[in-house]
Write a structure and sequence with these properties.
Radius of gyration: 25 Å
Strand content: 15-25%
Number of helices: 18
Largest sheet: 6 strands, mixed
Oligomer: single chain
């Protein structure tokens, strides 16, 4: 159904578009559950409802917009095929549904895209081309191929059909939990929050919509304020690490989104760990951004009925392991203690006995004699250990110091 200016004040996407998208994609994407998390509610002070989009076949909500776009194409467009530039969830969602519908699909990725992402996208039936060193290079090449081969470009966020498809996430949340009074939605290019805001404001005009961006990539946050911001760094939330937000999505966000908050990497890491530890669900950094916002800005959300879309679960297993270990360290269950010893026989033995007395498990020992600013007869020992909690760790450190050892903890960033 075409957008009606009277419904949206002239915005590119209307509630009618979202409803039409929901009807079009019904049965071809999973209607994921929206469930209350009592434990996260207790931790944050808000009533927290989770929309498990990480349960989609490709583990991300991106399928919705990609499929809605594909279904809108003419037979001629389908026969010629589609093209996109993406190294993330958009490529997999588009590849999966294009292959399922018999539409040829080409995905252009930067040359240094991790092999696992290339293989996953090829596994969904896409022809993957590697071009350039950056996303911008890949994007430019994809637009060139679009023109040369008569392909249809499917933008990851700045397209009305894509935005309407993503809006079905918000539509389903309010259909399932109408008492929600706030949605907290991650922002990269802005497609998900634009669609969700369009649906939510139509269904419940007093609904508050809050966007979340990684502090390293505050692109939409800066654009709304007319500020020049730096977008750079290696964020855990690579799915929303977008330097240049959409023009179409900016127009919708400016009109319908109430606020945008920023979250640091520390909060993103904690949120990923909490989802696995409490909800037993794997969520990527971008998918955990909503919870990270609740942790970083508790007063803003306390007492509200908050809906959080877990927009994706595609996280590298080694990175996930690192995040979980860092979380254990921050909670005092893992620690690295740097202990200054005298260069005497039995020193390490006596230190180890103190660990045994305090029932702390030694995981690794590293002796340093050369690369240190201590005198030639001095040495440093780093001991990685496992404790029950922060209080247990404090007792261990106090016990070592009581025996005359100089001890400091090696802190995480």
């Amino acid at each position: 159904m075409a957008t009606k200016a009277s419904e949206t004040g002239g915005l590119p996407v209307s509630f009618s578009d979202v409803e039409a998208a929901a009807e079009a994609i019904s049965g071809s994407v999973i209607r994921t559950p929206c469930l209350k998390s009592q434990t996260l509610s207790d931790i944050t002070g808000a009533e927290v409802w989770l929309k498990f989009e990480n349960l989609q076949f490709t583990a991300a909500y991106k399928e919705r917009g990609a499929l809605n776009k594909l279904l809108s194409l003419s037979k001629e467009q389908r026969d010629k095929g589609v093209i996109a530039a993406s190294a993330g969830n958009h490529s997999q969602g588009l590849a999966y549904h294009a292959s399922r519908l018999g539409v040829p699909v080409t995905i252009v990725m930067p040359q240094f895209t991790p092999v696992v992402k290339v293989k996953q996208t090829e596994g969904h039936g896409a022809n993957v081309l590697l071009e350039g060193e950056s996303f911008d290079d890949a994007y430019a090449f994809a637009r060139t191929l679009e023109a040369e081969r008569g392909l249809t470009f499917v933008h990851p966020f700045d397209d009305p059909k894509v935005i309407a498809g993503q809006g079905t996430v918000g539509l389903e949340m309010l259909q399932d939990v109408p008492e929600l009074d706030m949605l907290v939605v991650p922002i990269g290019g802005g497609g998900l929050i634009s669609g969700c805001a369009t649906a939510a404001k139509a269904m419940k005009p007093d609904m508050e919509i809050v966007g979340v961006q990684a502090a390293l990539y505050p692109s939409m946050y800066g654009k709304l304020r007319g500020e020049t911001v730096v977008c750079d760094g290696d964020s855990l939330a690579e799915g929303i690490s977008v330097k240049k937000p959409g023009e179409m999505t900016f127009e919708i966000i400016r009109e319908l989104v109430d606020d945008i908050v920023l979250v640091a990497e520390r909060e993103l890491e904690r949120a990923v760990a909490l989802f696995l530890g409490i909800e037993k669900t794997v969520v990527e950094g971008a998918g955990a951004a909503g919870l990270a916002a609740l942790l970083a800005h508790p007063r803003k959300f306390r007492g509200r009925k908050v809906g959080l879309p877990l927009c994706g679960g595609n996280i590298d297993t080694r990175l996930l392991a690192n995040v979980l270990l860092r979380d254990l360290a921050r909670n005092g269950r893992l620690a690295r203690l740097r202990i200054r010893l005298k260069d005497r026989p039995g020193q390490l033995y006596h230190v180890a006995r103190l660990f045994e007395e305090h029932q702390a498990n030694i995981l690794e020992v590293y002796h340093q004699r050369v690369f240190t600013n201590l005198p030639a007869k001095g040495l440093i020992t780093d001991i990685e250990c496992e404790t029950r909690d922060a209080e247990h760790l404090d007792r261990l450190v106090e016990g070592l110091r009581a025996r005359g050892y100089e001890v400091r903890m090696v802190e995480l960033a």
